Structure prediction request, 640 residues.
Amino acid sequence: MGESQKGDLHLVALTKTFGAFTAVQPMDLTIPQGSFFALLGPSGCGKTTTLRMIAGLEAPSAGSIRIGEQDITATKAHQRNVNTVFQSYALFPHMTVLDNVMFGLKRRGDKDARRKALEALELVQLEGLGGRKPAQLSGGMQQRVALARALVNRPDVLLLDEPLGALDLKLRRQMQIELKRIQQEVGLTFIHVTHDQEEAMTMADTIAVMNQGVVEQIGDPATLYEQPRSTFVANFLGQSNLLRAKVVPGSPREGVALVRSHDADLEVAVDHLPQGASDVWLGVRPEKLRLGESGGPNRLRGTVRDVSFTGVAIQYIVRMPWGRELTVVQQNDGSARATLGEDVTVSWAAEHGFALDASQDADAGAMVEDDV
Amino acid sequence: MNGIMNWIRRHLVAFAALVVLAYLLVPNVIVAVFSFNDPEGKFNYNFNRFSTDGWTNPCGTAGICDAVGLSLRIGLTASLVATILGTMIAFALGRYRFRGRSGTNLLIFMPMATPEVVMGSSLLTLFLMMGLPTGPLAILIAHIMFCISFVVVAVKARVATLDPKLEEAAADLGATPFQTFLRVTLPLSAPGIAAGALLAFSLSFDDYIITNFNASPSSITFPMYVWGASARGVPVQVYVIGTVMFLIALTVVMVGQLISNRRNRQVA
Ligand SMILES: Nc1ncnc2c1ncn2[C@@H]1O[C@H](COP(=O)(O)OP(=O)(O)OP(=O)(O)O)[C@@H](O)[C@H]1O
Ligand SMILES: [Mg+2]
Prediction:
């Protein structure tokens, strides 16, 4: 990738308002040609609205959409070389599977429609089912027909609006792998909308995390996970322990800064610290924390309040003297376990922490597990 | 004891269905049987002697085939026009929000709710005021008017169940608005439109009261003919035509069922 290509999708200050409500705040995005891009965010954050604007099914209130150099903002849905896999599949119930898949090709007068459609059905492993009606297929099969129907047109951009939402967990995992394989095979640009962070991380090259109509952060899955830039991203992608801390001037070592949290001096990598910040949330992922002193120079003492065994790992809840509870996840690798009520030391390395501006809500984007 | 109760319970629905079916069909069977009668005297009320005279010579009574022809022409034209207009109204009401929508929704029911006598007489008044002579044209306009309501109701019920996402999907796949209508919207609403058209035709073909108000001495429709004849004695030909109409209706309904069955279970 690197330099700009002919088929890159550019969203420039793209905005959508419904009356007084702004569903999508001015959004600037560049999605490179051929990439698997995920749009991740909680329900109602404006993912579908963004996709519908790209597809031409919803007119933007402001801003523009370009594919390469071509501005498509003012064109109608049927004039755009963009196809959508709808969340509800939206297969034509009165047509056979094959007719569904040929629909787009026939509109463009493709002489080879039949052969291409059969090939597409083969790609999604539905060969031989072309004569059926959609109602005679299972949910997973319908989903694949919807995919084939969109793919077969070789669009500049393929939009997938939570296409796996209706599937059960097992089929979902299977389809995730399938989708990724197909994307690599045909090399089209995929924009995959989901509110499942695991799905986004396993599939996408690049993820944009959206919240209330705003893109909070864009990056590859590892960067988003290791260096979230907001408490929302830190909590929405996986779990985070956040400690209130003040930046202490001076540096103990090259590339490391000091922060003080509840009388403890803690190290954090300088490039994980927002510039010019004085009050911060210091974040560490549960699996980066160690019980005992093997984790690194950062140490806090607390009491084990809860131990839960999940098989591959053990999750501890450790309460700090000031009341905050930290979640620690240890691999079940045979090392000694802590018991309930034991006083323990929790440690971690400087490069495993990240600091976020303290003006944010520490619980933004956190899953309310009790409700699930 | 228990076994008998169970047997009755299990077959009650089938039994009730048979009774209702018989209740519905007996009049038609009588008409069919009496179409083979050779009545004694003018009235075809007692089965006298088997004869196929009525069937071999259906136009044998003066004016009957003219009346059937006129009814067919009015019925076909009225149902065609009413189906086109009614379908458009149904789509407008079902799909778009506009000023006066709820008012239109209500007014559409008026012809169904108004007593036919009232409507027939007021239409006659209107036509006379406008200088439109009674006769086939006046009848046709009146029929289109009340048929539209029924078409709208039938089509609107179907349109309400259509998923708007399907039309979006068609547009997304490159279909122009016209292609989308032709290939997605229309085929999916076809059952409703067909039901509306059949209903309109049978209502028009059957109508006596409104027709009678707006007819001229030379525009005698089939129901008017039968009504007029019944005072003087109903010819066998009326029974023949009645039976034919019933058989045609039966065929249409059965073909419709067959098509929709095939649509629903088509395995590769
Ligand atoms: N046609 C509309 N009129 C008014 N408000 C709308 C309309 N469409 C969407 N919205 C609002 O815009 C916001 C974003 O909606 P959108 O469908 O894009 O969310 P989403 O991120 O796709 O959510 P989900 O994950 O639940 O599908 C929501 O608050 C929704 O209520
Ligand atoms: Mg959505």
In short: The domain at 62-234 of chain B is CATH 1.10.3720.10 (MetI-like fold).
